[in-house]
């Protein structure tokens, strides 16, 4: 096998003078630099599967909201979670090995991690619509073949669909079966659960869905075939930005990242005043809503809003079902969550909030500590996870009234509607539509639940971002020394002021976030803290 790995590796040489890192979102960069990385990640996938006794590992080739010329790769663990932390470091090691050291390092990982060579290795993979995808798939399959792994190509999928399939594959035929192991199984599961959750209701007016000209477009079009229609209730969906043939259009002037950073609808949107719109990102694992308010202009309904909406709805259902004393419901956010949303969850909804470092894996992990854990990043990555105890309670509790029976039925449907493996734009969209239909809300009522504090996010270029070390879920700097004291002194001068600085995990920069009582104060605080960071 060593000779095979060496021969295959020689076809995918590493660019010299490049240092790669498995970051918050796997490896991500210009696609032209990625060939050797993908090959080596293929080797890691085989090792990981063997280490876990032959359970299936997922590999997704995507660069999400990045421009079309980029690409990336990330690994999915057997239950559909993000790759375990320590394995990010092994991936980084192998990605940076010199060509001549690849086989030695592969073997040394095998030895260090006590991996049995004879255990079967199984891998499934998929990619988004980027033109560089098929070539990178060749690098991946060269590695899997050389490492003696069995593999299945799911071709084009959204990232969350690949997470779903990974979990389905590993739970097939067990009492924990997550669903049918096929793309169709995904649509059927969501379609049935949506019909059950909606209970014949219909949302008012259509929702316009901007698919970022990415893989979400064709997949949403497919999902529509499985959703209730006409007199059966449901939702009217208008798809825009679903051109996957012209690669240059991917994420161009559209998509969740464009809308969130530019704070405006994509120019292609024809949605009128008060009409609901939402945008997915390039691999459909992130979603944000928005609408035009005739009095106040563009209104963003971001991840914080989706989290508060979901927490309030599920909290009410648990109460109606007589389960609120039995089940611990909580919300997980990062420091980027608007302070007003945190206050709303704690004070108005009466639910606990946990803050974790940036990156979905931290939020997901913290959410599993609750029976119902709602987690979202402000930028729209997120989902809801249910504990075994919650699932059992929804299915075994004897209803004492028709109202209780109905609440339990809706809760059961939600556990199938929500993709519990990872944030899923298509599933999250159906969740939001369900809740708005139940509450008979337009986006205006949703927007009125609380008022965001004005805030500003600034990207500060520094000489070396690695000198910025944080604690307290990234809300405080411990290094460079003295910087936090300066930030604290600035924050104290602003009403409702809050600010923090941290090194980005995906870009070579420090991010400064600030919020305060007014727009100009938030801007002022962000600028002053940026100056402090720059000087450090
Ligand atoms: C402020 C912000 O939006 N940060 C993003 C961004 O991480 P940074 O570490 O801040 O670069 O990319 C991550 C991966 O997509 C995402 O999880 C996170 O929310
Ligand atoms: Mg994404």
Q: How would you characterize this protein structure?
A:
40% of the residues lie in helices and 18% in strands. The protein contains 18 helices and 19 strands. The protein has a 5-stranded mixed sheet, sandwiched between helices. The chain has a 5-stranded mixed sheet with strand order 7-6-8-9-10. The mean pLDDT is 96. Bound molecules: 2-acetamido-2-deoxy-1-O-phosphono-alpha-D-glucopyranose and magnesium ion. Residues 24-25, 336, 358-360, 377, 379, 381, 504-507, 511 line the site of 2-acetamido-2-deoxy-1-O-phosphono-alpha-D-glucopyranose.
The bound ligands are: 2-acetamido-2-deoxy-1-O-phosphono-alpha-D-glucopyranose, magnesium ion
Amino- and carboxy-terminal Cα gap: 51 Å
Total number of β-strand segments?
Answer: 19
**Largest sheet strand order:** 1-3-2-4-5
Structural class: alpha/beta
Family: Belongs to the phosphohexose mutase family.
GO molecular function, one term: magnesium ion binding
Function: Catalyzes the conversion of GlcNAc-6-P into GlcNAc-1-P during the synthesis of uridine diphosphate/UDP-GlcNAc, which is a biosynthetic precursor of chitin and also supplies the amino sugars for N-linked oligosaccharides of glycoproteins.
InterPro entries: A-D-PHexomutase_a/b/a-I, A-D-PHexomutase_a/b/a-I/II/III, A-D-PHexomutase_C, A-D-PHexomutase_C_sf, A-D-PHexomutase_CS, AMG1_II, AMG1_III, PAGM
In short:
This protein has 536 residues and is of the alpha/beta class.
What is the topological layout?
Blueprint: H1 2-10, E1 27-30, H2 35-51, E2 56-61, E3 70-76, H3 85-96, H4 102-112, E4 122-127, H5 133-146, E5 150-156, H6 159-171, H7 183-198, E6 207-210, H8 216-224, E7 237-240, H9 255-262, E8 277-280, E9 287-293, E10 297-301, H10 303-320, E11 329-334, H11 339-348, E12 353-356, H12 360-367, E13 372-376, E14 382-386, H13 388-396, H14 402-417, H15 425-439, H16 443-447, E15 455-460, E16 469-471, E17 476-479, H17 483-491, E18 498-503, E19 510-515, H18 519-535
Parallel strand pairs: 2-4, 4-5, 6-7, 6-8, 11-12, 11-13
Antiparallel strand pairs: 1-3, 2-3, 8-9, 9-10, 13-14, 15-19, 16-17, 18-19
The chain binds 2-acetamido-2-deoxy-1-O-phosphono-alpha-D-glucopyranose (GN1) and magnesium ion (MG).
């Amino acid at each position: 096998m060593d000779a095979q790995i060496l021969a295959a590796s020689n076809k995918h040489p590493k660019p010299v003078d490049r240092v790669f890192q498995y970051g918050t979102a796997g490896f991500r960069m210009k696609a032209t630099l990625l060939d050797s990385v993908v090959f080596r990640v293929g080797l890691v996938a085989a090792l990981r599967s063997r280490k876990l006794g032959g359970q299936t590992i997922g590999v997704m080739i995507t660069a999400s909201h990045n421009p079309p010329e980029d690409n990336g790769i990330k690994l999915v663990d057997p239950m559909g979670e993000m790759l375990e932390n320590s394995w990010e470091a092994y991936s980084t090691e192998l990605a940076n090995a010199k060509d001549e050291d690849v086989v030695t390092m592969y073997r040394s990982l095998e030895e260090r991690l006590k991996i049995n060579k004879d255990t079967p290795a199984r891998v499934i993979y998929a990619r988004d619509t980027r033109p560089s995808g098929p070539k990178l798939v060749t690098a991946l399959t060269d590695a899997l073949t050389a490492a003696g792994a069995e593999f299945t190509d799911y071709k084009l999928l959204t990232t969350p669909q690949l997470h779903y399939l990974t979990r389905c594959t590993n739970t097939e035929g067990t009492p924990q079966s997550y669903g049918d192991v096929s793309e169709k199984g995904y649509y059927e599961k969501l379609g049935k659960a949506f019909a059950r959750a909606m209970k014949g209701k219909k949302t008012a007016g259509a929702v316009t869905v901007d698919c970022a000209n990415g893989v979400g477009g064709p997949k949403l079009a497919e999902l529509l075939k499985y959703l209730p229609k006409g007199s059966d209730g449901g939702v009217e969906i208008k798809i825009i930005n679903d051109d996957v043939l012209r690669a240059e259009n991917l994420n161009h002037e559209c998509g969740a990242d464009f809308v969130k950073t530019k704070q405006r609808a994509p120019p292609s949107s024809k949605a009128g005043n008060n009409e609901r719109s939402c945008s997915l990102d390039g691999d459909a694992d992130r979603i944000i809503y928005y609408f035009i308010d005739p009095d106040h202009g563009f209104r963003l309904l971001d991840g914080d809003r989706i989290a508060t909406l979901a927490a309030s709805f599920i909290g009410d259902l648990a109460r109606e079902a007589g389960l609120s004393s039995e089940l611990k419901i909580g919300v997980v956010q990062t420091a980027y969550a608007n302070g007003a949303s945190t206050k709303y969850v704690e004070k108005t909804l009466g639910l606990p909030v946990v803050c974790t470092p940036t990156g979905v894996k931290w939020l997901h992990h913290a959410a599993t500590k609750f029976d119902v854990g709602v987690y979202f990043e402000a930028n729209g990555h997120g989902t809801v996870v249910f504990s075994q105890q919650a699932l059992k309670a929804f299915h075994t509790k004897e209803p004492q009234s028709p109202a209780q029976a109905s609440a339990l039925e809706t809760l059961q449907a939600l556990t199938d509607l929500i993709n519990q493996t990872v944030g899923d734009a298509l599933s999250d969209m159906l969740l939001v539509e369900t809740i708005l239909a139940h509450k008979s809300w337009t986006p205006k009522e949703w927007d009125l639940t609380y008022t965001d504090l004005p805030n500003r996010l600034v990207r500060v270029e520094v000489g070396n971002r690695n000198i910025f070390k944080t604690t307290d879920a990234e809300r405080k700097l411990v290094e460079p020394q003295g910087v936090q004291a300066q930030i604290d002194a600035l924050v104290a001068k602003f009403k409702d002021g809050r600010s923090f600085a941290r090194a980005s995990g995906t870009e070579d920069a420090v991010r400064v976030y600030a919020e305060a009582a007014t727009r100009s104060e938030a801007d002022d605080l962000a600028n002053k803290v940026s100056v402090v960071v720059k000087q450090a």
